[in-house]
């Protein structure tokens, strides 16, 4: 090949490279505003986490990050919306524990696989949960609660947010392990259950610490134990439930996902930036006030966590003998 022909060939290769479709490299992202969708109304723990991430992520990436609330259908409305968005990293999804429990507890409505139909990016926090009881109930520990329940079978009313919900399954596991019997009162949401717990209409509720912390600190409710797998620095003097009942605990979380098929380099960038901002002292303090512990993990670890969480829920439902429509 002569010099002239070689030059022509080189130019042709260069032009082809310039006009070829370019992959979405991390350095090209973001070039416009990012939206974080929240499947709940404003004000809850997941919404606060999303807004905290949005604020800090905007500072780190140099582009606006806005939060869009799409409540309804137990998360179904937001789930469907996010699944239909382009997988370009400009629509993200802030989720919590119901995201991976709903396909198990309500499979007729929530027909999705959290790790197949979405792209796991990062698990943002663990949610501290507690067993709370009415201040009038004459117990101050899980052991005393079990003794009282044995002495008064069926007299202890437990508030839940519905059959098959996390706050229904955990008390059922307590029943099975401790050999006691509770009476369940199902509510459409957590707020009314807490109000009835305060009034004494029900005597026990498993809930996020953020929902009952103020009432515990005021003395209107008593926290008997953490329902989490491990002790928490947020409530360092509170024992875990499984210290009395080994193997009885729950896993709760908040996390960030996107539509299925996101570019790995964009996922890696978001994972790195969110992990970094979650370590900032002001962010840790803000989440700590909600009873949330920031965690650091990879997209692969979050995906594995979601799969394990679904299996955990399946096992719990099966063990409880609950038939879900």
Molecular structure report:
With 325 residues, this protein is α/β, with parallel strands linked by helices. The protein has two domains: 26-126 and 251-320, Bordetella uptake gene, domain 1 (D-Maltodextrin-Binding Protein, domain 2), CATH 3.40.190; 129-227, Periplasmic binding protein-like II (D-Maltodextrin-Binding Protein, domain 2), CATH 3.40.190.10. Helix content is 42%, strand content 19%. The protein is built from eleven helices and eleven strands. It has helices at residues 3-19, 45-61, 76-83, 98-105, 142-151, 166-178, 190-199, 209-218, 264-278, 281-288, 299-320, and strands at residues 34-38, 65-69, 91-96, 118-127, 129-134, 157-160, 183-186, 204-208, 221-226, 253-259, 292-294. The strands form two sheets. A six-stranded mixed beta sheet has the order 2-1-3-10-4-11, with helices on both faces. α6 links the parallel β6 (157-160) and β7 (183-186). α4 (98-105) runs parallel beside α11 (299-320). The longest helix is centred in the last third of the chain and has 22 residues, at 299-320. It starts with a helix and ends in a 5-residue tail after the last helix. Residues 6-24 have low confidence and may be disordered.
């Amino acid at each position: 090949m002569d010099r002239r022909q070689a030059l022509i060939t080189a130019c042709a290769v260069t032009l082809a490279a310039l006009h070829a479709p370019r992959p979405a490299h991390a350095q090209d992202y973001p070039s416009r505003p990012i939206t974080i969708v929240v499947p709940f109304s404003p004000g809850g723990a997941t919404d606060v986490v999303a807004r905290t991430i949005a604020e800090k992520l905007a500072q780190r990436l140099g582009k606006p990050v806005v939060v869009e609330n799409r409540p309804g259908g137990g998360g179904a409305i937001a789930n469907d919306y996010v699944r239909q968005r382009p997988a370009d990293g400009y629509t993200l999804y802030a989720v919590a524990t119901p995201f991976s429990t709903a396909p198990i507890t309500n499979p007729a409505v929530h027909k999705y696989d959290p790790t197949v139909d979405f792209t796991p990016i990062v698990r943002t926090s663990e949610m501290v949960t507690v067993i709370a009881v009415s201040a009038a109930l004459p117990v101050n520990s899980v052991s005393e609660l079990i003794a009282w329940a044995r002495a008064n079978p069926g007299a202890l009313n437990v508030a839940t947010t519905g059959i098959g919900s996390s706050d229904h399954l955990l008390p059922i596991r307590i029943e099975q392990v401790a050999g006691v019997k509770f009476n369940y009162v199902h509510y459409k949401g957590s707020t009314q259950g807490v109000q009835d717990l305060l009034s004494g209409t029900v005597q026990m509720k498993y809930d996020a610490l953020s929902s009952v912390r103020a009432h515990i600190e005021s003395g209107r409710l008593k926290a008997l134990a953490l329902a989490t797998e491990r002790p928490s620095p947020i409530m360092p003097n509170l024992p875990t439930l499984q210290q009395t009942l080994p193997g009885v605990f729950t896993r709760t979380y908040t996390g960030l996902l996107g539509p299925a098929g996101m570019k790995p380099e964009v996922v890696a960038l978001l994972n790195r930036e969110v992990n970094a901002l979650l370590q900032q002292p002001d962010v840790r303090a803000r989440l700590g006030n909600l009873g949330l512990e920031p965690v650091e993990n990879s997209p692969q670890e979050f995906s594995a966590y979601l799969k394990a969480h679904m299996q955990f829920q399946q096992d719990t439902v099966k063990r409880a003998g609950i038939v879900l429509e």
